Amino acid sequence: MENMTLDWTIVVQFVMFMFAILILNAVLFKPVLKTIEERSSRTSGAEEEASALSKKTEIKVHSYERRMSAARQRAADERRRVIKEGSDREKQLLDEARRKAAQIIEEAGQQVAAERDSARQALSAQVQALSVEIASKVAGRQMSAGGSA
Q1: CB-based contact 149:143 (threshold 8 Å)
Q2: Which of 42, 56, 138, 142 sits at 20 to 30 Å (Cα–Cα) from 26?
Q3: What per-residue confidence (pLDDT) applies to 62?
Q4: What does residue 144 show for φ and ψ, rounded to 5 degrees?
Q5: Is the Cβ–Cβ distance between 143 and 132 less than 8 Å?
Q6: Is the sign of the CA dihedral 65, 70, 74, 80 positive or negative?
Q7: Residues 33-76: tens digit of each pLDDT
């Protein structure tokens, strides 16, 4: 009969073990596993979301860089255009100033030539009168412009 008591103890221990497993499974293992799975799904969801946000950010950065490059190109084109316009305007103003300066110089040259001719005529008349006067003083008698006394 001792063998029988021993067999019942093993059976009772086995039943108690199974009962403990069922209770621990319901009270401890399932909630812990559920919490671990939820954390895992939240973590993987957050990782996927972070990856998606990283890709979106990368796309936006590339888009921003392309827009900045295009804006720099437009600014460089505008700068070249403004410089060319300024250069053209400067050339135009210099050409106009040279033309005006040449016109002023020509007008001044004509005025000087006219004044020179006027001065020659005035001096020519004075030279003739002075030469008659000098000749009269040298000859000691009155002389006229025609050369006879």
Answers
A1: yes
A2: 42
A3: 94
A4: -115, 170
A5: yes
A6: positive
A7: 999 999 988 888 788 888 999 999 999 999 999 999 999 999 99
* 141 close to 149: Cβ distance less than 8 angstroms: yes
- Token couple for 87: 């250069």
What residue type is 135 in one-letter code?
Answer: A
User: In the Cβ-directed half-sphere of 35, how many Cα atoms lie within 13 Å?
Assistant: 6
CA distances to 19, 46, 96, 135, 144 from 147, in Å: 168, 129, 57, 10, 6
Helix (H, G, I), strand (E, B) or coil at 147: coil
* Confidence (pLDDT) at 44: 84
143 C-beta neighbours (distance < 10 Å), count: 18
d(CA 10, CA 13): 5
Q: Which residues contact 136 (CB under 8 A, 6 or more apart)?
A: 142, 143
Which residue, 143, 116, 111, 108, is CA-closest to 128? 143
Contact assessment for residue 136 and residue 143, using Cβ atoms and an 8 Å cutoff: yes
Residue pair 149/142 in contact by the 8 Å Cβ criterion? yes
pLDDT per position as a tens digit, 94-107: 999 999 999 999 99
